[in-house]
Every structure is written in C-alpha cells, then in structure tokens.
Write a structure and sequence with these properties.
Elements lengths: L2 E4 L2 H4 L4 E6 L10 H15 L4 E6 L4 H13 L2 E7 L6 H8 L2 E6 L1 H5 L4 H10 L3 E3 L7 H7 L13 E6 L3 H9 L5 E6 L7 H8 L5 E4 L12 H14 L8 H13 L8 E6 L11
Parallel strand pairs: 2-10, 3-4, 3-6, 4-5, 7-8, 7-10, 8-9
Antiparallel strand pairs: 1-2
The structure holds pyridoxal-5'-phosphate.
The site of pyridoxal-5'-phosphate has 20 residues, from helix 2, helix 3, strand 7 and helix 8.
Length: about 280
C-alpha cells in the first residue's frame, strides 16, 4: 500500500517524522477501511449461501456506499437501511445506481436496529440476506482490518494513529500492532469514551488509548476551524481529508503535538481511512 511522507512545520518543530498510509487510494468507490471491513463479511455471506447483503447507515454513509459497490462487484443484491426521513443525495444516488434497495428507518426504529425482535423481523422479511451491523463492526470486519498493516514495517514507528467510528478499524489495527507500537484512536463522535470497553473486548494488546476531545460537536460536526485546517492541509500536502473522520484526527494529532501531549522525536504512522465521497455533502 502506498505511503506518503508528511512534511510540516508542526512536525519538524518537535523533531517528529510522519508517514501516512493511504487507504484512500485503494479504490475510487470502495475507498479506505470499508474495503477491509467488508472482505470477510462477504466471504461469510457466500459460505452461508446468501444472495443479499443488508446493512445500516446514515444518509452519507461511507459503509453503505462501499457495500453497494461491493455487492455489485461480487454479485449480491444489497439493501441499505438508512436512518431518518427520505432524502436524496450523491451518496444514495450512487448506492441506487449500483443496485442497492434503500429503505428509510425512523430514528426510533434505527435506534432499535440491534434488538433481537427487530433482527428477527428482518430475517423473516429478507431470508436470503446476510445482515452486517452498522459500519461493518463485527468479528469479520475486525479481522479484515487486522490486514491493513500487512506489509508495513511496524517497528520503525513509535506511534500509529487512526480515526474511530465504531472502533472496528482501530481494533484490527491494535491486534496487528507490535506491543512496542503505541496506538492512538481519535473518536469522531461526542463522548466517545464509551467505545473503549468494546475495543478492549475485541483486542489482545493494551498498547492503545482513545483521544476523545476532537469531535467538533459530534458525528459529522464541523466548523470553520476544521474546514480551514482541511484546506491548509490540502494546500501543503496535496492530500484531501474527509471532514467526518480524517480531518478531525489530523487536527487533533497536530494539536497534541503542539501542546507537547505527544513525545518529541517520534516517528508516527497515520492511517488515512478514505471517506472522501462524503465530502460531497460540503458542496
Ligand atoms: C467508517 C469510517 C471510519 C471509522 O471506522 P470504524 O471501524 O467504524 O471505527 C473511519 N474513517 C472513515 C473514512 C470511515 O468511513
């Protein structure tokens, strides 16, 4: 996988070095970590002889976007259960063009989507569907994400950094890390500390920590500071960041470096998890 060197005054001021692992370049439609999260889910769906993939997400979901494309590629029908009222946007337009059936769920139903009774009703309605949880956050997703670091020489890095939604990606990274790496996860939701318990359950090392201060008001929250940071980062690096995950992570990481909340003279690997299709909601 491609690695970009990041040169920036914030890094050189403290003698730090940074590499960025470019999952955003994996595929134009299925960019980033979603590719890894779907891999073993699709294998399992095949093993169970299912012909349909069903999952959940918001109206700008990178996960549903990737699922729709992967379904088309691997010959599955796809069903996307979307949170909230019926809307139309570029993300869902793509999903529909790739053959996904979109069903909108009220916010209340969406909250109850993991209840046994709701799952039972889905299985009855769609017996041929393999049900993947929101964000691909299950054992198959985590297993796929443990392959993100394959081929990377881990011991040259002191710190490995990744953004966190459900925590599946970070869990895979932690499991693949060397105990000598320190792994930092930047949560994209408000009060993301609750994610630590589940990540701990799904991982085998304790060399990690969550940074929960850089959510910018909550999931998909944004302000001028964040948008200006994205623009400056693009101007200096020619690398686009998505505003939901990677811009918050990079902003937070630079801020922690400037505040000496990270040791100086370390080598950092940041994982760009993609998600750029979601930036179309900024237009
Ligand atoms: C889904 C997503 C994440 C979060 O992944 P989790 O495994 O849910 O923590 C991070 N970055 C991008 C771009 C994503 O689309």
């Amino acid at each position: 996988m491609e690695i970009s060197k990041i040169h920036h005054p914030v890094l050189s001021a403290k003698g730090n070095e940074m590499d960025m692992l470019r999952l955003d370049l994996i595929h134009p439609a299925v960019s980033g970590n979603k590719w890894f999260k779907l891999k073993y889910n699709i294998e399992q769906a095949k093993a169970e002889n299912k012909n349909t993939l069903l999952s959940f997400g918001g109206a700008y979901s990178n996960h549903l976007h990737a699922l729709a494309y992967a379904g088309k590629l691997y010959g599955f029908q796809t069903i996307g259960m979307v949170r909230g009222e019926s809307v139309n946007n570029k993300t869902l337009e793509d999903c529909i063009a790739w053959g996904m059936q979109i069903n909108f769920l009220s916010r209340e139903d969406y909250r109850n989507k993991n209840e046994d009774s709701f799952t039972a009703s889905l299985i009855e309605k769609y017996p041929q569907a393999f049900i993947i949880p929101e964000g691909g956050n299950n054992q198959y997703g985590i297993r796929g994400c443990s392959e993100i670091l394959e081929g990377t020489d881990l011991l040259q890095y002191d710190v490995i950094v990744c953004s966190v939604g459900t925590g599946a990606t970070l869990s895979g990274i932690i499991n693949a890390s060397d105990p000598r790496n320190r792994v930092l996860g930047f949560t994209a939701v408000k009060n993301g500390g609750y994610l630590a318990a589940e990540i701990a359950k799904n991982t085998e090392h304790d060399n990690w920590q969550l940074c929960t201060d850089y959510h910018f008001g909550g999931f998909a929250g944004k302000n001028e500071t964040l948008l200006n940071f994205m623009k400056d980062f693009y101007d200096s690096q020619s690398i686009e960041l998505d505003f939901v995950y990677n811009a918050k992570m990079m902003y937070g990481l630079f801020d922690m470096i400037q505040q000496n909340r990270l040791p100086a003279r370390v080598k950092i690997l940041v994982i760009h998890t993609g998600g750029l299709q979601g930036n179309r909601s900024l237009m």
